[in-house]
Amino acid sequence: MASWAVRGASIFAGGVSLAVLTMSPALAQSEASEQPVLDEIIVTGLRASLEQAVDIKRDAPQVMDVITASDVGKLPDINVAEALQRVTGVQITRVFGEGQSVSVRGLQQVRVEVDGRTLLGWSARLSPPENDQLGRSSGLDSVPSSLFGKLAVYKTPLASQVEGGLGGTVNLTTPKPLSFKEPTFTFQTQGVYSQVTDKVEPAFTGFGTTKFADGRIGVMLAGEYQKRTSTTQAFERNNFLNRTYTGTNAGVNQTPALLQYESFVVDRSRTGVNGAIQFEATPELTLTADALYSKLVTGRHQDFFSFRLPTGSNPVTNRVTENNMVVAGNANGTVTTAGQIRNEPTESYLYGLNAKYADDGLNVEADGYYSRGTIDQTIQIITLQATAAVPGAFDFRDQTVPSLTLGGTFNPANYASYNPAGNGVRSNRLLGVLDEWTGKLDVSYELESGLTLAGGFRYTDLGARSNAYRSQVTPTRAEIEPYLTVIDARKFLPDIPGSFPRTFLSTAPTFDYVFTRAQAAQPNPNPNDRSTLLPNSQRDYDFSERTLGGYLMVSGEGEVGDIPFRANAGVRVARTRLSMDTFLNVGTTSTLVTDKNSYTNVLPSANIAFNVTDDFLVRVGASQTMQRASIADLAPSSFFNATNLSVTGGNAQLKPPVSTQGDVSFEYYRGKSSLISGAVFYKDVDDFIASFVTTGVDTNLDPQGRELVFSRPENLASAKIKGFEIGIQQFMDFLPSPFDGLGLIANYTYSDSEDNAGFPLVAVSKNSYNLIGLYEKGEFSARLAYNYRDEAVFEFSEGRPSFIGARSQLDAQVGYQLTKEISVSLQAQNLLPKKSATSEYSNFNETALNSYALSERRFSAGVRAKF
């Protein structure tokens, strides 16, 4: 801690010297300490929205990028994450074909805010862990993008901004009624078609605002409903693990553990409502009450066929190796098939009160809010297992997913080849609640010299509770016969080529049968518990965290020679105390354990912007940022997944990673909506958190003594990230008509990361870029948007990195303004599905495939009215 504290003090001292000592006594009034005003919506066209975004970036007190409401609305983006992928330096993670989370300049530890507040919630995932308990902010797939006026990405911090974003902060700004000059009402309806699922489903958006009492009282209400059913075709849950071979070519080879082929049909419905009431009590005092509600209901049906290789020595015969990895061979494996239904409705609530007072250089803002997120996840599964080991030949080479040929007398479609698996009827339930109470006060005052002094404090009380339940039973053959189904080869992974079992016997579980049967076999002995299923205490936790933060900041304007500048410098201090209650499970005995942790972070920051010319800006920033560990990572209890023999758990003693960083950016404004920008950045991160995977046996968790894969988060390393980003936004006004409606947005980010062991950091793609072609002329507009990111580490297995492969996506949109009030649009997403597919592989070897997920194209047509 001492090392980064010394570095932080040095940065702060340098920043203060630069920002304060060189300031002229005759400074003009400074606006650097103010956040950009992000309330007004301009919906008069693409070019107008880009012009507004350029103005905000130009006047910002830090390095940032912004997308305005009309810009978001005109992109073919279904949620906030997908809208943000167009921003320079932002990369997104997709789950089930939709964007879910973002990383900024290579770091996925990003704080997400709504009007500077925390929106709590959960998100669904395709890969383990079974549920990604984000804890500190909602997943960006849970909220519709249409609810927000602007999306801002802050890449360097101010001392006045809330700590918690190692890579940066994303602020989603809701529109406020007093910002509108006149009553405004809009409505949009869309039909969305998913190609593989072959369904057309609706989406509706509405917005209205008006003012009363001579414009002193304003009300606003916005809402959106979306429904979409999608199909994901996947190869999943394989790991390459060390296995010992004797005899010919003896040694240790990394060998696949599991080949699993699966299909997901995912049904999503997304509802969002946002409202606000504002009252201008006096010309100096404005009061605001607002609320946001979002609900994401994700239901999925999954069918899978798996072939698990044996453990121990010599598991594969006739093995073929590539870079010490077994990529082909023969094995006697365990065949398992299953049908699963899973539902996870999640809800997020955010209620806030705000008061702003501004008079004669004094600005006071008081803000308080309550945020809550809930989940009620249920899983029902019926599993079959082959009556004996099945001989199989596999080959990972020269194909999209590995081939698998089964031998012997085993018939994948014949029930006589299977038995109901041990504990093969299983019902799970996970109930989670997150809530946060926060209050803050900010005060700033402009001195006669022109300097602005600012300070404030923020208190947060965050709580989280997770209770898991699971009852299971081994059924008879006769009782599950009504729930058997043969998978149609024509419909199982139709877009993934290769030779593997496509016709097999699966199951069709129903909620009532599985829940009732499992509960009857293993009922909850406590009638007052939250579920009638048996408690699964190894996944339970009760978390409490209290944070007190405060800051001091000075800002102003001046000149160096003949070059004017704007600057700010300050320091933020945050004290965090947390307590985590979990259960230590040994055999059938569970003991409550309380883990505690506390830490204090001192985070200096300084930003200065030089107006070299009227159109050319140079910004310099230096700061320290931090990121608290996710709540799930802090829960030390262990969860054993009997399906894939994995054990996951947390670590309450995790330290928050701290980044010491510097930024230099250049901005050249060539017109009202045209911009050329570039930046160089460097981050030095201490106590970086990553999942570390090992293998072993734990008979307390698995009495059969099988080899398990253990995964726990650790402060694994220090790390360094360096890179640059460049971007251009340009309309071709100099071309003759009609070509003067052409425009281009292009950006590229290079981010080179390395930890102290020489490995790249988790989720950091070295190269990423966006290319967006635009056309807007008269009533017609069009966009073609392509984004790309290359491979990135996603975990470490037995000390080796596993990667997510390079991927890209192509989207398109055309629109036409029929009248002043009515417009129509056509959109197409994911036009190149195989390019956007997510592949995961081991240790730099793309042949050693861990998983593959292919999403479908979707098309939509809509009508929008504004009055």
Automatic annotation (TrEMBL):
It is found in: Cell outer membrane. Residues 403-831 form the TonB-dependent receptor-like beta-barrel domain. The keyword Chaperone does not apply. Keywords: Cell outer membrane, Membrane, Signal, TonB box, Transmembrane, Transmembrane beta strand, Transport. Residues 1-28 form the signal peptide. Belongs to the TonB-dependent receptor family. This is TonB-dependent receptor. It comes from Niveispirillum lacus.
